[in-house]
């Protein structure tokens, strides 16, 4: 079993999905929720499952929360509980706090009270789905920063048989191909003279505007 230990607070849809994934990857995971039913639903998918109100500092101390490498606060709807939990975790000296935000304002407050990383699952999923809707060739889209993203784009018929050098995407669209996916194989050091094959997927990094132009025209 891997040595990294995670605590996930809030076993809603997001929290339980994070917890189950980490557990399946062989990490030690403690799932915490104030709702006993939620804990019972997830008991077989975590190493330990505990019923506790995490806005209560004493309860967090008793769980030894400081000893976890990462604590994920996945409380969504109850914004007050989410903020209070992050604040308390910070005060208790938790090394890394990742928190889920409902909206931008909530996210700003979470950073202010001590979150090391804030995630916006609904917003990010919305962006990914929207890019997929704009162009059926876009398989996935992940924002790296406000203006920069990575997109997985299916090659168009007119790219097939050409090399990256011939496609000249850097000059034409100001995007960079960081990998080429051919079936199950990932080529993360694409050669400028490798020929694009039918069904290949390009993993492209760039400014959002440039990526959009590339998605629409290429
Ligand atoms: P999602 O949208 O991911 O389903 P929810 O906000 O519905 O998120 O779920 C968050 C979970 O957090 C719920 O199961 C809720 O019981 C739990 N929760 C809310 N407040 C606290 C708290 N103070 N302590 C522990 N768990 C909490």
UniProtKB/TrEMBL annotation:
Residues 136-218 form the RCK C-terminal domain. One of its GO terms (biological process) is potassium ion transport. One of its GO terms (molecular function) is monoatomic cation transmembrane transporter activity. Coiled coil: none annotated. PROSITE patterns: RCK_C, RCK_N. InterPro entries: NAD(P)-bd_dom_sf, RCK_C, RCK_C_sf, RCK_N, Trk_Ktr_HKT_K-transport. Gene3D superfamilies: NAD(P)-binding Rossmann-like Domain (3.40.50.720), Regulator of K+ conductance, C-terminal domain (3.30.70.1450). Residues 3-119 form the RCK N-terminal domain. This is Potassium transporter Trk.
